[in-house]
Amino acid sequence: MDNLVDAFERVLGRPNVLFGKEISARHFSDWSLAPALAPDFLLRPNSTEKLSKILSICNSRNQPVVVQGGMTGLAGGATPQSREVAISLELMSGVQEIDPVGMTLSAFAGTPLQVLQEAAMQYNLVLPLDLAARGSCSIGGNIATNAGGTEVLRYGMARSLVLGLEAVLADGTIVNSMNKMVKNNSGYDLKQLFIGSEGTLGIISRAVLQLQPQFQATHTALCALNDYQSIIEVLNAFKRCLGGGLTGFEVMWAGYYRRVLEVLPSLDDPFGHQHPFYLLVEYKGNRVEESAEWFASQLYHQMEAGFLVDVLVAKSQQDAQKFWRIRDGIGELLNLKGVVSNQDISLPIHLIEDFSQELLMELDDNYEGIDALFFGHIADNNLHTVVFSDRAEDGRAIERDIMELIGKFGGAITAEHGVGVLKKDYLSLSRNDAEIALMRTLKQALDPGNILNRGRVI
Ligand code: FAD
After folding, report:
1. What is residue 84's DSSP assignment?
2. Does residue 455 register a pLDDT over 70?
3. Which residue of 67, 72, 261, 394 has the fewest C-beta atoms within 10 A of its own C-beta?
4. C-alpha span between 445 and 458 (Å, rounded)
5. Ligand 1 neighbourhood includes 31 CB (under 6 angstroms)
6. What average pLDDT does range 54-79 have in this prediction?
7. 51: buried, middle or exposed (CB in 10 Å: 19+, 13-18, 0-12)?
8. Mean pLDDT for the stretch of residues 317-346
9. Given pLDDT bands bounded at 50, 70 and 90, which one contains residue 2?
């Protein structure tokens, strides 16, 4: 072990090889419920070349490694396991270049997402990736988990923003694929191997991201609906008429909406009486007045057609923030006593209500004192389920029931957060044998010693 320390220190210098009490507790666990553990060492390379050298050392000695970005992951992927050395990207941080003509941004993988968002804004451009962990999560972690967030409907997940990247393989090989062009079909698109593979195939060290122009105006409305079919009708109509300006389509089932308003009494119910479903719609445009009129006219058409039964259009930024506070009340709900399951899953849009009904029935039949709440980015197939129970010990069984039902409905066990360690046992409910076998082949080819994020994903 001493030799290993010496080898790491020769590459990184003593201050960047930490062990024992020198390692801050924030490296023991990500934000998930995976059990925390201190890594054997914490290594902090500050360049791709040093990262390459320490990986090569680990590989030659079969030393398992856990990759750490901002530690905000929710699947336990960055949480150390027994005998692992943690490699943190925190010193590989900063914007390398912004190209305002090509609208691209190149950055080191450890850079916090918010730093990149702010850098883009200085050029009147946006990096259209946003999530509540923006201040802490790193762009490398975002890419490794193919993060989603609130901009997916318009711009897609992190994958669709990545033009190029640089990754270091388990044996230390540096794969420089820092492409800046939208079109490049010269051979395999290698960056895709590393996007969403949760650090199991290589460590992302830099990335090139596609920026977008800013919209001039944002319009927001909170709507009430009677049934799920109306939600589908409105979604399809808005997709047709609002096109790329439709940037938010957040559905809340009545149970979720009511519970948030109970927990946040400062937020009165803006409708005064209850409805089965609520919809938060956001539309962005460039001509402020014209886009406001167009948005209002589309809402009016949907009311005339009977799909929307009530509509409140935000008259100010404060109104819009209030509507979003209801949607974002999940933060407060998760702090309540009795949450035994919090799932982030995907389903075919037309099956989402059938799934929620069947789940409610199953939970009612099999468990006592259950309350299940639903909300989600329906347009992205994404449903969140939160289950409360007086019996914490039912949590694991409830989770398995939910996962099995997702399998039955042909859904995905994780929509955004990834598999990590927490969903690994359920992977076969969403992926078939041939798919999992191909994942293993890729892992074997790129990391034959299985040192990178061992035991995660597959
Ligand atoms: P980490 O937690 O450090 O790591 C996550 C995984 O990626 C681990 O497996 C790790 O080993 C690997 N990894 C990290 N860096 C690299 C790298 N450079 N190269 C290779 N592998 C690497 N996620 C969403 O998708 N959408 C949301 O809306 C969302 N909201 C969130 C809100 C909150 C309050 C919190 C706490 C989390 C949320 N998340 C969300 C989850 C989390 O923020 C994302 O998964 C984020 O992308 C993780 O980035 P990170 O830098 O913190 O990664």
Report:
1. P
2. yes
3. 261
4. 14
5. yes
6. 97
7. buried
8. 91
9. low
Best residue among 145, 166, 375, 451 to mutate for probing ligand 1, ranked by most atoms within 8 Å of CB: 145
CB 408 within 8 A of CB 359: no
User: Which amino acid is residue 292, in one-letter code?
Assistant: A
| Range 393-401, long-range pairs (CB < 8 A, 24+ positions) | 394/340, 394/367, 395/340, 395/341, 397/366, 397/367, 398/340, 398/341, 398/363, 398/367, 398/370, 399/341, 399/343, 400/426, 401/359, 401/362, 401/363, 401/366
* DSSP-derived secondary structure for 252-297: EEHHHHHHHHHH-TTS--TTSS--SEEEEEEEEESSHHHHHHHHHH
* CB of residue 76 inside a 6 A radius of ligand 1: no
Split at pLDDT 50, 70, 90, the class of 132 is confident
Count the alpha carbons within 13 Å of 171 in the hemisphere toward its beta carbon.
8
Cα separation, 177 vs 206, in Å, equals 9
Enter the DSSP assignment of 15: G
Question: Phi, psi at residue 432, to the nearest 5°?
Answer: -85, 175
Q: What is the DSSP letter of 452?
A: B
pLDDT value for 1: 55
Residue 60 token pair: 């030659």
CA pair distance 106, 109, nearest whole angstrom: 9
Cα 141 to ligand 1 centroid, rounded to whole Å: 5
Which residue out of 32, 47, 67, 115 has the highest number of ligand 1 atoms within 8 Å of its CB and is therefore the one to mutate? 67
Section 34-50 average pLDDT: 97
- Over residues 144-181, the pLDDT tens digits come to 999 998 889 999 999 999 999 999 999 999 999 999 99
Section 360-383 average pLDDT: 94
CA 88 to each of CA 4, 93, 126, 286: distance values in angstroms, whole numbers, following the listed order: 17, 11, 27, 41
Beta strands 246-253 and 371-376 are antiparallel
Q: Which amino acid is at 133?
A: A
Say whether pLDDT at 426 is over 90. Answer: yes
Contact between 29 and 71 (Cβ < 8 Å): yes
Nearest atom (ligand 1) to Cα of 204: 19
